[in-house]
Each structure stands twice: as structure tokens, then as C-alpha cells.
Specification:
CATH superfamily: P-loop containing nucleotide triphosphate hydrolases
Low-confidence stretches: 1-7, 212-218
Strand order of the largest sheet: 10-9-8-3-7-6-4-5-11
Largest sheet: 9 strands, mixed
Distance between the termini: 53 Å
Length: 236
């Protein structure tokens, strides 16, 4: 009996266990990334829902929306909240990525405290398919609160922060660094449930110029809604 227990797969003993040489099992439902080479490097084969995903950007707009778009397009019309994006989202460019402008909610806040309050309430409500939250500075205790709030549902929750945040501790089970590269994006594996990977992964992405070839006709999404004014409608 002892021998069979020792030979059992680690995940059979507890879902939080995995062999150091193998990717761990995802504890929640995962969304296919739309990029086979990336999905093969992630526990569960995709973006995990119901937890904090830390995306650490060398610069905002380096391709993070193009990277996430295939997964966001799988949400079946559920609202996608863009909280504190650094630039006004462009409707035609987002539509070219398969995201209907009517599905997107652009929220702004007057400060980080309001933004964190909005993020936590969106996650606890479970009413949105995804929350993308751009925030340059977040304390560790705030990250833990958001991760805990996300665990109550299946929302795809991505924090988009500067690259230097990789030096700080985070409760996120998945942390990736994103750097622009010619023709695509370079992904570094800061933290994942599985073996350490030192070599970055290059993913080709559709050039922004193709997405915005009608830039002269493009318009940003409707003006952002103040977070506190819209939250009662979102969370019921």
C-alpha cells in the first residue's frame, strides 16, 4: 500500500501538487489562448479563470490585447471590462480582433483606491467574462484581496503592470513578462505551476497596422464610465 501511494501521480494526492519536471494541473477552468505554442507551456493548456494572472509589460500597448483577444472572443458575449487602460480603446481595431464594441465596458476612476474597489466588486459579482486592469502600482495586500475575490468565480482576470513588478511577490499562480519584438511579442515565464523556463517564447502577432488600416475612420469606444457610477448596474 505504501508503495502504491508513493507511485501515485502527485495531482491524485492533491491538485496543488505536481512533479517538478511537468506542468501542474489548473485548479480552475482554462480558456484556450488561441496560440498552440503558448497553451502548451501553461498549466491546464490555457488562461486560468478564477484567479489573478499577472502580465508584466515592458511598455503598455506592446501587444497585450492582441495576445488576449482569442481567449476574450470565447466568452460568449459576456461583458469585458477594461479598467484604467493607458490609451482610449479603438472600436474598429477591437472589432478586427473579434471583440464586439457592445461587449466592452471602459471604466475610469479618479484614483487607485477607487480602481481597486471597482476591480474587487466586479470580481465578486461574477457578472463579467473578463476584467483587464492596468495599474502601475499595487501593494501586495491589494493583490491578495483581488486574487481572493477572483477565486469566487470564473472571471478571466489579468493585471497589466510594469515589468519591474516582476521583482515583487505576487499571489498570482501565473506571471508572464511581455516584451515587444519584431513581428510579435516575446513572453517570459516569471512564474507558473511547472518547471522553470529560462528561454522566452516568441509569438507572432498580427501587425497593428493591419488591424487599424481604416484608422482615419476609427473611433474610440464611448467615453469611459466613472467606476462608482456603473458598478451598481454591473453587480446588480
Amino acid at each position: 500500500m505504501q508503495h502504491s501511494t508513493l507511485m501515485a501521480a502527485p495531482e491524485a494526492l492533491h491538485p496543488s501538487l505536481w512533479r517538478a519536471s511537468q506542468l501542474g494541473q489548473a485548479a480552475t477552468r482554462c480558456l484556450d489562448t488561441g496560440f498552440a505554442t503558448l497553451s502548451a507551456q501553461l498549466p491546464g493548456g490555457g488562461w486560468p479563470g478564477g484567479c489573478l494572472i499577472d502580465l508584466l509589460l515592458q511598455q503598455a500597448g506592446c501587444g497585450e490585447l492582441r495576445l488576449l483577444a482569442p481567449a476574450l472572443a470565447q466568452l460568449g458575449g459576456l461583458p469585458i471590462v477594461l479598467l484604467q487602460p493607458p490609451h482610449p480603446p479603438q472600436a474598429l481595431a477591437l472589432a478586427a480582433l473579434g471583440l464586439a464594441p457592445s461587449q466592452l465596458l471602459w471604466l475610469r476612476s479618479t484614483g487607485s483606491k477607487d480602481a481597486l474597489w471597482a476591480a474587487e466588486n466586479i470580481l465578486r459579482s461574477g457578472s463579467c467574462g473578463a476584467l483587464l486592469f492596468w495599474q502601475p502600482h499595487v501593494r501586495g495586500d491589494s493583490l491578495r484581496r483581488l486574487h481572493l475575490a477572483a477565486q469566487g468565480g470564473n472571471t478571466l482576470f489579468c493585471m497589466l503592470r510594469p515589468l519591474h513588478g516582476a521583482q515583487d511577490a505576487s499571489p498570482a499562480p501565473l506571471r508572464l513578462s511581455l516584451r515587444p519584438a519584431a513581428g510579435g511579442i516575446e513572453i517570459g515565464f516569471v512564474k507558473r505551476r511547472g518547471p522553470q523556463r529560462d528561454a522566452p517564447l516568441f509569438l507572432p502577432l498580427q501587425p497593428p497596422s493591419l488591424l487599424q488600416r481604416h484608422a482615419s475612420l476609427d473611433r474610440p469606444l464611448p467615453a469611459p464610465a466613472p467606476a462608482r457610477s456603473l458598478l451598481p448596474e454591473l453587480v446588480g
